[in-house]
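Batch manifest, entry 17 of 40.
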Amino acid sequence: MGSQHAKTAPYYFVPGPSKWPVLAGASLLLTMAGASAWVNGYGWGPVANILGILATIVVLFKWFGEAFAESESGLYGDRIDLSFRWSMSWFIFSEVMFFAGFFGALFYARSVTMPWLADIDHKVIWPDFTAQWGNTPGGTIDPFTKMGPFPIPTINTALLLASGVTLTISHHALRLGQRGKTAFWLAATILLGAVFMGFQVYEYMHAYSELNLKLTSGIYGSTFFMLTGFHGFHVTLGAIMLAVVLYRLMKGHFTPENHFGFEGAAWYWHFVDVVWLGLYVVVYWL
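Output type: structure tokens
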């Protein structure tokens, strides 16, 4: 939405009937059905999953393209801007609750289950088991080595902290109307996110091949990969969002006064940064 549209936009724009919500639901259903069939050994599962993902990408591309066109044509006023802000806020809140569930599972496993398995009632079954995080009752799973904070997790922390700084610089440049500087620092943010993901892929390869740490390595392995894996997925999603913002910026979208598309993606990226700080302390250090 541009500033020149603020005074001419309708009181509250209500779009007409759209086919995209139905198509999005159908493509997501195909994606999840394919994934479910895939993990259960059905031959049609991989094909259905890939087709569903591709269909979802196409639907989102078309759907968001319509929203961008509506914005740039002056149909979005201050009230639509406010509704977008509330919507993004609630979406991020839902993501906070999502990660809170996984952090809660980690806390329960460490602070409740581990001491319980080591109490006197279980000494008969596992006499050598001690309530130390990462330990497992003897013979239940293959031995593994826990993941420490050095060097990759610490490097990734520095990368995400740096990306928060570059994104803030980019935002301030946009507010000052410095589009070239905005694009440069936004591209730097995306690059830092990509490097982060590269290091995480290397970390997973190291965990599987050298530490024997896998998703099946007891509660430690499952919580480690679920928390860090879902965070990595969110970093990827955030980088895609910022890449779309960069593309729109290069197409001439956004003004210093009206650029919530940029701000919404920036909110999400900063949220991802904060979650990582929690992961870095709780998963790698404690």
